[in-house]
């Protein structure tokens, strides 16, 4: 007996929901353990929604309301658990304490011009700014001298591509390598916020141990994926070690080249609060791929447990291939 179109649609919808649940399980529980699961975890998740769109269109065409209901439920699961649509879990409006607006921003060597970068910073009006890729690259000159001039009155600490700008006094700064044989470091600055001290850690994690691109024909994709997961795992562990030694409340910010899923992300949020996950609304994608627009969330502000996350947003900006992350934090009295 040949199954009817409605029966095929119903079973296809059920199978697709099971596949999405399986993808979610792989990303959350297995993550970066193998090359294949690393690819699934780190790739833009939009591709997994293509079957869902087709099934919804077929349900509408056949007026199969049961299948449509299943697929709408599947779409909700897909949006929240795979695409990362976030609904704030808490709000601390009106809480008393020291308020601090923190901004993390990969400025991509100011490839769109220092004017555009400075305008975005001015619009967000942060108290503390952590920038990455704030150095010369290729034909692009070092943007820091001009950025410092435009942000006169701010205190600045810098190492290589990393810089921390603060409206508050910077008491001390240190630089710690994240792993041997790489140039990536953690820039740590202790700032004096009124009568309290806070440690700001700015970091930009590697995608691999060398500059080899996954698009290089000589690079084996599986080897690259395994390598990038191993390298970033070492750097995450080192970053957590650095933060654990601090005697003050800690904020870790920067470009982690890591989506909000997988085992490495789970390690970080075990000790810190993902500001956007706590108080942001929407997808919060920060990395834009050419003209396709934002495709994933890889830039973060992680607040220590001492803080309350009052708000977090990813503003629209075209001054870099990354959008900034801005969070309003409160250090309770």
Write out key terms for the chains shown.
alpha+beta; six-stranded mixed sheet; single chain; 9 helices; 333 residues
Structural description of this entry:
With 333 residues, this protein is an alpha+beta fold. The chain has helices at residues 5-30, 35-42, 50-62, 65-82, 114-124, 144-150, 221-244, 263-271, 275-279, and strands spanning 97-106, 128-132, 155-159, 162-166, 170-177, 185-193, 196-204, 250-255, 273-274, 287-288, 294-296, 299-303, 308-313, 325-332. It is built from nine helices and 14 strands. Mean pLDDT is 91; it is low at 209-218. Strand 6 and strand 7 form a beta hairpin.
Topology, pairings included?
Layout: H1 5-30, H2 35-42, H3 50-62, H4 65-82, E1 97-106, H5 114-124, E2 128-132, H6 144-150, E3 155-159, E4 162-166, E5 170-177, E6 185-193, E7 196-204, H7 221-244, E8 250-255, H8 263-271, E9 273-274, H9 275-279, E10 287-288, E11 294-296, E12 299-303, E13 308-313, E14 325-332
Parallel strand pairs: 1-2, 7-8
Antiparallel strand pairs: 1-14, 2-4, 3-4, 5-6, 6-7, 8-12, 9-12, 10-11, 13-14
Helix pairs in contact: 1-2, 1-3, 1-4, 2-7, 3-4, 7-8
Mean pLDDT: 91
The radius of gyration is 22 Å
Largest sheet: 6 strands, mixed
What count of helical segments does DSSP give?
Answer: 9
Write the H/E string, N to C. HHHHEHEHEEEEEHEHEHEEEEE
User: Helical amount among residues, as a percent range?
Assistant: 25-40%
Task: Briefly say what this structure is.
This protein is α+β, with helices and mostly antiparallel strands and 333 residues long. It is built from 9 helices and 14 strands. Strand 1, helix 5 (114-124) and strand 2 (128-132) form a beta-alpha-beta unit.
């Amino acid at each position: 007996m040949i199954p009817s179109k409605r029966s095929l649609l119903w079973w296809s919808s059920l199978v697709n929901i099971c596949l999405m649940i399986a993808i979610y399980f792989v990303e959350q529980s297995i993550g970066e353990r193998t090359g294949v699961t690393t690819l699934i975890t780190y790739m833009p998740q939009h591709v997994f929604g293509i079957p869902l769109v087709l099934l919804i269109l077929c349900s509408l065409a056949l007026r199969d309301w049961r299948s449509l209901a299943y697929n709408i439920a599947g779409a909700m699961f897909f949006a929240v658990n795979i695409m990362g649509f976030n609904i704030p879990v808490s709000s601390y409006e009106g809480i008393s304490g020291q308020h601090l607006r923190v901004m993390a921003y990969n400025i991509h060597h100011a490839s769109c011009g220092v004017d555009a970068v400075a305008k975005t910073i001015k619009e967000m009006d942060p108290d503390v700014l952590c920038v990455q890729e704030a150095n010369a690259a290729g034909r692009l000159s070092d943007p820091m001298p001009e950025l410092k001039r435009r942000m006169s009155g701010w205190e600045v600490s810098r190492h290589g591509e990393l810089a921390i700008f603060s409206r508050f006094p910077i008491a001390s700064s240190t630089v710690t390598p994240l792993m041997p044989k790489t140039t990536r470091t953690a820039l740590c600055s202790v700032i004096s916020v009124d009568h309290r001290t806070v440690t700001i850690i700015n970091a930009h994690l590697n995608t691999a141990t060398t500059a080899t691109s996954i698009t290089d024909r000589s690079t084996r994709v599986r080897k690259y994926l395994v390598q990038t997961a191993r390298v970033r795992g070492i750097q995450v562990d080192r970053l957590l070690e650095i933060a654990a030694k601090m005697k003050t409340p800690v904020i870790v910010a920067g470009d982690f080249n890591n989506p909000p899923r997988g085992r490495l992300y789970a390690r970080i949020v075990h000790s810190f609060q993902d500001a956007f996950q706590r108080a942001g609304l929407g997808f919060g994608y920060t990395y834009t791929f050419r003209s396709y627009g934002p495709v994933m969330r890889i830039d973060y502000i992680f607040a220590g447990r001492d803080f309350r996350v009052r708000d977090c947003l990813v503003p629209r900006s075209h001054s870099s291939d990354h959008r900034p992350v801005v969070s309003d934090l409160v250090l309770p009295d």
